[in-house]
Amino acid sequence: MLKEETILNYLQVTAHTRPFLLACYEKTNNPKASHHAYQNAERFIYGLNLGSDYWESAKSTPLSVQPLLLYYGLNHYLKSCLLTVDPGYPATAKVLAHGLSTRKRKKQHYRFLEDDIRVQPHGLFPHAADHLFQFSSSKEKISMDELLRPLEAMAPIYAFKNVDHPPADEPWPPLLAYFAVLYNLSMLVRYEGEWWGEMQQMRDREDYVFIIEFLKSASEQIPVLISAWLKDQLTSVF
């Protein structure tokens, strides 16, 4: 059985990806399974490669650039995963949007943990949530704190806050939580440069340590989570 840390390397050649995709499509009785497996094998590999390129670049870039690289790296990873369950992806331009939204101009005295995102009806996020995790949020909006707190990697730093909170009433799959938080951080560095610069230089806000800890956990955990998802998919069809 393949180890999680090796599967991304294993799926770097079409000799492995085509049989894998073929098995995925045959499992759903797709009438054009062979055609789609042939057409999508290289796209699948390119997505993994681009995701890894963004990831490696993020390790050696300033903090202000990391959210963008990690966010778009995760985009590419998820698009490769989608090709295993949706051979026609992207069927329409609608699924190419982010699928999330947030307020571009933040309020005065803005606090990151209190900020929220809204799930849109179309775009990569809802498409991946449905096809990869069979998940649909019942909430109109969700805060960064609600997304960060349940993440296992964030538990140690939250322990220092020493504030009791009830368990999340709608736990999100970790990859979707990482996607949503990275999306919001990428919007911050694009549209709120002054706030980001002050946070990074003055370090007078609680947000700073939670953002730093989150980016560290995202860099470490997302490739592991993507590998685990692909491993489950691979073992389910072979």
Global morphology: elongated
SSE-based structural type:
mainly alpha
Low-confidence sequence ranges = none
Reported for the largest beta sheet, the result is: 3 strands, antiparallel
Describe it.
- The chain is mostly helical and 238 residues long.
- It has one domain (4-237).
- Helix content is 61%, strand content 4%.
- The chain is built from ten helices and three strands, in the order H-H-H-H-E-E-H-E-H-H-H-H-H.
- The chain has helices at 4-10, 14-27, 33-58, 66-83, 124-133, 144-148, 155-159, 174-191, 193-202, 207-237, and strands at residues 100-101, 116-119, 141-143.
- Helix 2 crosses helix 3, helix 3 (33-58) runs antiparallel to helix 4 (66-83) and helix 4 (66-83) packs across helix 5 (124-133).
- The longest helix has 31 residues, at 207-237.
- The relative contact order is 0.15.
- The mean pLDDT is 92.
SSE arrangement:
Layout lengths: L3 H7 L3 H14 L5 H26 L7 H18 L16 E2 L14 E4 L4 H10 L7 E3 H5 L6 H5 L14 H18 L1 H10 L4 H31 L1
Antiparallel strand pairs: 1-2, 2-3
Task: Give the tags.
single chain, 238 residues, mainly alpha, 3-stranded antiparallel beta sheet, 3 strands, YaaC-like, YaaC-like Protein
Summarize the structure.
The protein is mainly alpha-helical and 238 residues long. Helices cover 61% and strands 4% of the residues.
